[in-house]
C-alpha cells in the first residue's frame, strides 16, 4: 500500500518497526550489526519509507477483522525514522498509548532510542525506557545500555557488549544486569555465534552465568539451515537438559519464499514433550508491486479443524522517498566498475569528496549483509571478499552522499 509523498534530502537505510516482535521474525538475533538475516517487516526499498501500520484482530463470533491499533512513523530529511507512535482504537476514537523517539550520531547509526507512555489524565508523556548505543569506527555496534525510568530518575538495567572477529562478523553478545545494592554490573547471558568456511551463520549458543561456580552454563542453542542458494530455510532451537547433559529440541522455524526471493511464510512449531509437535504459529507475508511488505497475517494451527486460525493482521503503508542529495544540488555520484563483478577489482566513482570517510555495504536482495568496509573519498575501493554467485546491492554512503548500484557476481 503506497501513498506517494515527498521527502527531500539524502536518505539512509531505514528499518521501520511494526512494534510487534516475535520469535517468528526475530530468530533471537538481537543487536544491530552484521546478522545475515533480516525479518520481513524490516526489509524496505531504498525508495520507500513506512508511514503507518494498521493492526486488525479477528473476532470469531462476527467472523470479521476489526481495527484495533495503529503505528505512525516519522522520518527526518535523511530518511531515518525519528519517531513511532502507538494508538488504540476505543469507542470510535484513537487513544495515544506510547511512542518511541530516536536520535542519530554519524550517518544512520542510532545514538539512543527513548520509549515513553502517554498519561491521558495528565496529558503528558512519561519516560519509560531508554536504549543508548555506541559504535566503533567501522559502524559496528559496540555497546547497548538500557535504562528504566523510576521515581523521577533513570536507572541502569541491562548492558550488552558485542565482539567481532577479524572479518567483522559478530562472534559474541554479552549481557549484564545492574545490581543497585552493589552498584555493579553482573554477568547474565552470553550468546556465541558460529560460522562456516563461507562466513555463513550456522549456529548460536546461549549460556547463563552461574554466580556460585563462576562459569558459563549452557541454556539454549539455535542452528540455521540454508538451501543450495544460500537462503535460510529453517532454524532449530534446543534447550540444554541438565539431567541428561544433552540438547533437547524445543522448536523449529521454517521459511518459504515467493518467486522474487522474498519471505512469504514462516511457520513456528513448538515441542513440549516427546509426543511430537504440540503447537504451531504462522506468519503469512504479502508484498505490494514495489516489493514492500503490504500485509502480515499471524495465526495458530487448530488441530481440531486441521486448519489455521488467523488472529491478527498488519497492513503497512509506504510513501515514495526521493533519493538524492541536498537541495544545494551537485552532480551526484557516478561509478564505473566491472559488471559482472569479481572480488578485488577496483571501483572508480566521481564526485566523492576528499577527506570524507565513506561506508561501503553489500546486501543481497533479501537485505542480508555480506560485506562492509570504509574508504576515503579520494581513493578507489573494492569489494575484497569473494561472495557467492548472485545479485547484490552495493550501498555507498558518506556525509550527505548516498548511492546504490546493483551488481552481479558469477
Give an overview of the whole structure.
It is a single chain. By secondary structure, the chain is mainly β. The chain has one helix at residues 23-26; strands at 2-3, 48-59, 64-75, 81-90, 93-104, 110-119, 124-135, 141-150, 153-164, 170-179, 184-195, 201-210, 215-226, 232-241, 246-257, 263-271, 277-287, 293-302, 307-320, 334-336, 346-350, 357-364, 369-376, 381-382, 390-398, 401-409. The strands form 3 sheets. The protein has an 18-stranded antiparallel barrel. Strands 23-22-25-26 form a 4-stranded antiparallel β-sheet, with no helix packed on it. A hairpin with a 5-residue loop joins strand 7 and strand 8. It is globular and about 60 Å long. The model is unreliable at 2-46 and 323-331 (pLDDT under 50).
Contiguous low-pLDDT stretches (5 residues minimum) are 2-46, 323-331
Instruction: Return Rg in Å.
Output: 23 Å
| Order of SSEs | EHEEEEEEEEEEEEEEEEEEEEEEEEE
Please give the share of residues in helix: under 10%
The average pLDDT is 82
Count of extended strands: 26
What features would you highlight for this structure?
18-stranded antiparallel beta barrel; 1 helix; globular; mainly beta
Reconstruct the topology from this structure.
Blueprint (H helix, E strand, L loop, with lengths): L1 E2 L19 H4 L21 E12 L4 E12 L5 E10 L2 E12 L5 E10 L4 E12 L5 E10 L2 E12 L5 E10 L4 E12 L5 E10 L4 E12 L5 E10 L4 E12 L5 E9 L5 E11 L5 E10 L4 E14 L13 E3 L9 E5 L6 E8 L4 E8 L4 E2 L7 E9 L2 E9 L1
Parallel strand pairs: 1-19
Antiparallel strand pairs: 2-3, 2-19, 3-4, 4-5, 5-6, 6-7, 7-8, 8-9, 9-10, 10-11, 11-12, 12-13, 13-14, 14-15, 15-16, 16-17, 17-18, 18-19, 20-21, 21-24, 22-23, 22-25, 25-26
Amino acid at each position: 500500500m503506497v501513498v506517494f509523498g515527498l521527502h527531500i534530502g539524502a536518505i539512509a537505510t531505514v528499518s521501520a518497526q511494526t512494534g510487534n516482535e516475535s520469535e517468528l521474525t526475530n530468530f533471537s538475533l538481537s543487536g544491530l550489526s552484521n546478522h545475515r538475516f533480516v525479518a520481513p517487516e524490516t526489509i524496505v526499498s531504498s525508495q520507500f519509507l513506512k508511514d503507518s501500520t494498521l493492526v486488525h484482530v479477528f473476532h470469531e463470533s462476527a467472523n470479521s477483522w476489526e481495527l484495533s491499533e495503529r503505528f505512525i512513523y516519522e522520518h527526518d530529511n535523511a530518511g531515518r525514522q525519528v519517531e513511532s507512535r502507538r494508538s488504540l482504537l476505543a469507542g470510535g476514537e484513537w487513544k495515544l498509548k506510547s511512542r518511541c523517539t530516536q536520535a542519530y550520531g554519524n550517518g544512520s547509526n542510532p545514538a539512543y532510542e527513548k520509549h515513553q507512555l502517554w498519561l491521558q489524565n495528565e496529558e503528558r508523556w512519561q519516560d519509560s525506557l531508554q536504549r543508548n548505543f555506541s559504535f566503533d569506527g567501522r559502524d559496528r555496534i559496540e555497546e547497548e545500555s538500557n535504562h528504566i525510568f523510576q521515581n523521577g530518575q533513570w536507572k541502569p538495567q541491562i548492558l550488552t557488549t558485542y565482539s567481532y572477529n577479524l572479518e567483522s562478523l559478530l562472534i559474541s553478545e554479552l549481557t549484564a544486569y545492574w545490581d543497585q545494592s552493589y552498584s555493579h554490573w553482573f554477568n547474565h547471558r552470553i550468546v556465541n555465534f558460529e560460522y562456516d568456511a563461507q562466513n555463513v551463520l550456522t549456529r548460536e549458543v546461549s549460556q547463563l552465568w552461574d554466580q556460585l561456580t563462576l562459569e558459563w552454563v549452557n541454556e539454549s542453542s539455535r542452528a540455521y539451515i540454508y538451501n543450495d542458494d544460500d537462503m535460510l530455510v529453517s532454524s532449530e532451537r534446543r534447550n540444554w537438559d541438565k539431567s541428561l547433559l544433552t540438547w533437547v529440541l524445543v522448536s523449529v522455524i521454517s521459511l518459504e519464499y515467493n518467486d522474487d526471493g522474498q519471505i512469504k511464510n514462516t511457520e513456528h512449531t513448538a515441542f513440549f514433550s516427546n509426543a511430537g509437535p504440540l503447537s504451531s504459529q504462522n506468519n503469512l507475508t504479502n508484498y505490494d508491486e514495489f516489493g514492500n511488505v503490504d500485509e502480515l497475517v499471524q495465526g495458530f494451527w487448530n488441530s481440531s479443524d486441521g486448519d489455521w486460525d488467523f488472529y491478527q493482521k498488519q497492513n503497512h503503508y509506504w510513501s515514495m522517498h526521493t533519493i538524492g542529495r541536498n537541495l544545494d544540488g551537485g552532480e551526484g555520484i557516478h561509478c564505473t566498475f566491472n559488471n559482472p563483478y569479481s572480488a578485488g577489482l577496483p571501483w572508480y566513482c566521481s564526485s566523492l569528496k576528499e577527506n570524507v570517510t565513506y561506508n561501503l555495504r553489500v546486501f543481497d536482495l533479501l537485505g542480508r549483509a555480506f560485506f562492509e568496509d570504509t574508504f576515503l573519498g579520494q581513493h578507489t575501493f573494492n569489494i575484497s571478499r569473494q561472495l557467492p554467485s548472485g545479485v547484490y546491492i552495493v550501498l555507498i554512503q558518506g556525509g550527505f552522499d548516498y548511492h546504490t548500484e546493483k551488481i552481479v557476481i558469477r
